[in-house]
Amino acid sequence: MKETKQEGVDISLRKFIKELGYLAGGAAVLATSPWLTACTPEKLKEISGNRARVALIGTGSRGQYHLHNLKLIPHAEVVALCDNYEPHLKEALALFPNARTYTDYRKMLEEKDIDGVIISTPLNWHAPMTLDALAAGKHVFCEKAMAHSMEECKAIYDAYQHSDRALYFCMQRMYDEKYIRAMQLIRSGLIGEVTGMRCHWFRNADWRRPCPSPELERHINWRLYKESSGGLMTELASHQLEVCNWVADKMPESAIGMGDIVYWKDGREVYDSVNVIYRYSNGVKINYESLISNKYNGMEDQILGTKGTMELAKGLYYLEEDHSTSGIKQLINQVQEKAFAAIPAAGPSWRPETQGKYRPHAIISGEVHVNHGQSTVGVDKDGSDVILSAFCQSCITGEKAKNVVEEAYCSTLLCLLGNKAMEARELVYLPDEYKIPYMKF
Ligand SMILES: NC(=O)c1ccc[n+]([C@@H]2O[C@H](COP(=O)([O-])OP(=O)(O)OC[C@H]3O[C@@H](n4cnc5c(N)ncnc54)[C@H](O)[C@@H]3O)[C@@H](O)[C@H]2O)c1
Question: Within a 10 A sphere around the Cβ of 116, how many other Cβ atoms?
Fold first, then answer.
């Protein structure tokens, strides 16, 4: 059993940081991803033999995913599980039969033998549970997004400033090797000046979960109702907007957008189609789009620079110099060759400027796979196991992970600002009362 754990997150965490050049020049990695300072391989070695006693609230789909990862973390021990929906609690108990079970999280927080609490409940529960757990003296790992309203986010942020406990939000891209390495490459100037960002998430599914009885509808399908969910923005965009801020090293000032229920008209309250544009003070924009009735475009975090493009989710980048048949060059060639002379006045003077073929380069070492014309590399892991391991490490050392709360705060505020823009159908600005010193504009 112990051996399985050693081959799990522990090893991958060490390998992951080592491969990033931590040992040979880690300062660069830690400069762009300072939260990794709390979980270096040396610090992991120091806590060898210790175990964080953790409890998990919310044993649904994501909670059970975390439990599977916890089985692979040698410095974690799951001592308690909590859920107010019995079928999920039973499934979780089957994974950790020795854990104590609770239906009331407040009762569970009274237990002295719990070092850290993992919260994977619906969005409307993030703030009350995080605040209660911090007040009870527990280290906390809460799922993204940070909270359901700007006011709740600010309450969490303020509580954290006065707490000596570690607090993590599960923004796993911050612990994803591809993203960390990409950030270094971007800072090194590889893709030139970043002049735009395009993030999208397309799915073709209704987002509904089977519901055993009508009175459970809002409990099971919490994602579809405004009282418990921020819809596509908090569920999906939260990860991607964090990446944009990480790249830009600042916050957009304003947002404008449109949201609609276009296809899944089944009584849900949250949009199934969102388009939001965020604008940074230098004019750089994030174009965010999500639609859940067509999955052709999949999911991507695209960073556009004057010399190249990063597709972070695929783990690839492309250089402008690899592509020699852009529309502009084509036009110049045509002019030089006096091609227009032969074109009748009403005829075509421009060929469509469709995307050409760029040679993909891998962000991290690994083979580039081409499936159905799509290239990808190193996409099997997304950082969720590493961030959970880092949290368990913090439960033992007491060390806070630098900037994790701040990054979660900034990206969640952007999600909520996007929703506000779509509701108002007008340009909106981040209210002054929610600005924090960490934010640069
Ligand atoms: N980081 C990621 O990539 C990622 C992926 C999926 C989900 N999530 C997040 O994880 C969280 C949970 O999502 P999910 O898909 O697992 O939802 P889910 O509905 O499958 O699970 C939520 C669980 O919380 C329980 N619960 C609700 N209220 C409770 C209460 N007051 N006390 C105790 N238990 C309560 C429910 O009974 C359920 O078992 C959400 O915040 C979601 O955004 C994050």
Answer: 24
